[in-house]
Each structure stands twice: as structure tokens, then as C-alpha cells.
Write a structure and sequence with these properties.
Blueprint lengths: L1 H95 L1 E4 L4 H6 L3 E4 L9 E4 L9 E4 L5 E2 L8 E2 L4
Antiparallel strand pairs: 1-4, 2-3, 5-6
Length: 165
């Protein structure tokens, strides 16, 4: 019986020792769980803050996209306006540098109604030859005054030379 009591005492002591160890392990486990819970809560707060930052950035990106679309639209409008202005400028340049001439004898030009005799004393002195205001444009030849240096008149008496600087 003593042996049994001794064995029982030994077993009880061993069980108490194990119980104490498991209590320590349980406390360490509880502390570890509490620490992990704190980490999870901290990370959840950080995730919520990051979500808010992402939401703000998404809003800023939407505003920037709207601004970019407006700028693109303005750019297209300005490009169209610039193209139209350049076209008008080219047309005006061509128009301003277009010259017209009609060649022929005085009699031919008068018959076509391009020249008239005006004024003068006794029909001779001070007589001027003037261009008619209303004339038929089909009698004129058009040319670019930037590129034309000579107009051949096909006449024995005269020719016309144009100097450009």
C-alpha cells in the first residue's frame, strides 16, 4: 500500500507539475492571442486608412480625367480654329499676290471696253487713258506676282518687265 501511496503521490506531483506548466503555456498562449488580436486591429485600421487614401486618389483621378477631357476638347477646337485661320491666311496671301493683266492694242482694249479716253484740250493735250470701272473679267489673265518677272506682250514696239524685290 505504501508503494501505491508513493506511486499515487508521485503521479499527483507529476500531474500538478504538468498542470502548472500547462497554466504557464496557457497564459503564454493567451498573451500571444491578445498580441495577435492587437496586430489584427492595427492592420484593420491601417487597411481602412489605405482604403480612404485609395478612394481619395480615385476621386482625384476622376477630376484629372475630366480636366484632361476638357483640355483635349479645347485643343481640338483650337487646332480647328488654327487650321481655319491658316487656310484663310493662305487664301488671302494668294488673293493679295494675284495680279491680272489684259494685253492688246489700244484699239482692242478700247473695243473690249477696258480703256476710255478722258479729258484733254482739243482732243490732244492732257488727254488721259483710264481703265473702265465696269469691265468683263474674262479678258484678263491671272498670275502670281511673286513668281512673275516678265509679261510677254508679243509686240514689236513694247514689252513689259516686272521687277520684284
Amino acid at each position: 500500500m505504501n508503494t501505491m501511496l508513493e506511486e499515487s503521490s508521485t503521479q499527483i506531483a507529476e500531474l500538478e507539475r504538468k498542470l502548472k506548466q500547462s497554466g504557464l503555456n496557457l497564459r503564454a498562449f493567451e498573451q500571444r492571442v491578445a498580441s495577435l488580436n492587437e496586430n489584427i486591429e492595427s492592420q484593420n485600421l491601417e487597411i481602412a486608412e489605405l482604403k480612404k487614401v485609395i478612394q481619395d486618389k480615385d476621386f482625384q483621378m476622376a477630376e484629372l480625367n475630366t480636366t484632361i477631357q476638357k483640355l483635349d476638347s479645347n485643343l481640338v477646337t483650337q487646332a480647328d480654329t488654327l487650321e481655319n485661320k491658316q487656310k484663310q491666311l493662305r487664301e488671302k496671301t494668294v488673293q493679295l499676290n494675284t495680279g491680272h493683266f489684259a494685253a492688246g492694242t489700244r484699239k482692242e482694249l478700247m473695243e473690249k471696253g477696258l480703256l476710255t479716253k478722258e479729258g484733254g484740250f482739243l482732243g490732244l493735250i492732257g488727254k488721259t487713258k483710264a481703265m473702265e470701272e465696269n469691265f468683263d473679267e474674262e479678258f484678263f489673265t491671272s498670275l502670281d506676282i511673286r513668281e512673275t518677272t516678265t509679261i510677254p506682250l508679243h509686240s514689236k514696239k513694247s514689252s513689259c518687265h516686272i521687277r520684284t524685290s
